[in-house]
């Protein structure tokens, strides 16, 4: 029985030493300013904000479209969607390149090709691919997510 008591006393003393040394280290750490108890347990890890998509409207285009009997004209207003926060500057710098590419793309289309609403998605996809190519070819950021035709009138 005496042996059990001496073992029990040794275990209790070892636990007390361990607990007191841990508490002392924690107290020294918090009082020196290295550890901040509230921040240690209450703060959430910082998360980088996800870039929000922005829409950049381009100036309207008036494009001549070849027709069977006579030429037609198309008024096109479009916006570009991008997550790149610097895209506004890129679009201002590359406006002549973009306008030229869009003029060429649409002037190759016939009135019949453009006058069907079911062609709208394929035209937007074609415009997106063309714009990304033009910007990439000129060593400019080409972070365009989507091309949106906001207004299209053909006469």
TrEMBL record:
* UniProt keyword terms in alphabetical order: Cell inner membrane, Cell membrane, Cell projection, Chemotaxis, Cilium, Flagellar rotation, Flagellum, Membrane, Signal, Transmembrane, Transmembrane helix
The record's GO CC annotations read: bacterial-type flagellum basal body; plasma membrane
For this UniProt entry, which residues form the secretion signal? Answer: 1-25
Q: Which GO BP terms, alphabetically?
A: bacterial-type flagellum-dependent swarming motility; chemotaxis
- Localization per record: Cell inner membrane; Cell membrane
**Which topology term describes how it sits in the membrane?**
Single-pass membrane protein
Q: Does the keyword Repressor apply?
A: no
Top-level taxonomic group: Bacteria
What single Pfam family name could you report for this chain, choosing any that match?
Answer: FliL
> What job does this protein perform?
Controls the rotational direction of flagella during chemotaxis.
Q: What PANTHER family does this protein's entry cite?
A: FLAGELLAR PROTEIN FLIL
Q: Tell me the protein family, please.
A: Belongs to the FliL family.
**This protein is called what?**
Flagellar protein FliL
- Per the UniProt entry, what species is this protein from, by scientific name? Shewanella baltica (strain OS155 / ATCC BAA-1091)
């Amino acid at each position: 029985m005496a042996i059990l008591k001496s073992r029990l006393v040794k275990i209790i003393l070892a636990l007390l030493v361990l607990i007191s040394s841990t508490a002392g280290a924690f107290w020294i750490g918090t009082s020196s300013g290295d550890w901040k108890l509230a921040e240690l347990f209450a703060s959430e890890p910082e998360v980088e904000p996800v870039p929000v998509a922005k829409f950049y409207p381009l100036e309207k285009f008036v494009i001549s479209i070849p027709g069977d009997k006579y030429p037609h004209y198309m008024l096109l207003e479009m916006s570009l969607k991008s997550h790149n926060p610097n895209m506004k500057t890129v679009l201002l710098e590359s406006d002549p390149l973009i306008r030229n590419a869009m003029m060429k793309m649409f002037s190759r289309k016939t009135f019949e090709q453009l006058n069907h609403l079911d062609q709208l998605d394929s035209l937007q996809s074609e415009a997106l691919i063309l714009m990304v190519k033009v910007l990439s070819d000129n060593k400019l950021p080409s972070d365009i997510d989507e091309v949106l035709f906001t207004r299209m009138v053909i006469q």
